[in-house]
Amino acid sequence: MPSWTIIPPTMEDLDQHYCHPMIVKLFRIMKTIYGLLDPQNEPSGIHEGKHTATFGYENSEASDESSVLSSLFIHFGLSSQTSPRFAIIVPSMQIEDMTQGSRIPVPSELVPTVTEICDFAVMRSQFTPDPTEYEIDEPESYPAGQVWERVQMQKYHELLMKEGFIQSTDPRHSHRCDICRSDLLQCKVCLKVMCPSRSCAAFPLFCMRWRPCAAGHRCWYSDICIDCVVGGTTCLCEETWTCDLCTEKGGFFLRCHRCARPFCRGCSYLVGCRGCRASNLCHDCAEEAPENVAKENYVELVGPCTKCKSPVCKPCAMAAAAGTSVHIAVVSFSTGCDCIKSYK
């Protein structure tokens, strides 16, 4: 019986070009179920490590759609427990509380998501790995990504044929637009594709929107469509967002010591040292906090970097003082610049 634990993802999964294409779908189902039936344990993010999501199906000689769907199981539980708490009963589209022995219908908004997982399971059951391409211990995210990528590419080309833009597709250019030959833009999570060229006739056919992580090229997800955005952190100015994985890594936001709200480096509501990450209170807390609290949390900042304009606190400046100017060679300040910072 093939089965895979998709949440939490392993380090081997994160080292792959793909994450598992069902990871966001499983998380959204799990979050909804816990929100309804066990709100105290509702998960906050895919990578938090407190929950598990597992799915699989029975192996049979037929491996047809009906045998896969009739044996398909989707389980959710806490990482600290050996047995799953909730299960999706696919044939009847019900959620079973395996502790209480009760069932409720799958909420209507989750039915399309469960259906896509079913479609994936059928395609995965029909996929036979090429022994020359896959190692025995290959993380499941790799073959799963290969399977779902083929499905999404096929959907893209079929839509162009349905709309009458092309009569057939050239398999040699499967990752390029059949019309303008631009490289297709692909979400790293759900693997859906679209033509990025606004002048191409294929562009209006796909309503995919993208949300860039503030980590840029350092973000593991890299290209992610807005439908796959789960959790993460957004600055109060709403201009900067980091995915949940980069949020856990830290270093992209300053936080007020009083209210702990996140602020990006371009935000004027909170200013902090780009070296040691020390920060003052945000404007709201500075006005509300008693004078002794505001003074206790005050960080004296000296002149900004002449190149990236990042501020630095007085202790950091004094630690690196050299003559009349201060030069700080940045080794790893996360979001700090990688230049030589000159403070006067």
UniProtKB/TrEMBL annotation:
This is Uncharacterized protein. It comes from the Eukaryota. It comes from Suillus discolor.
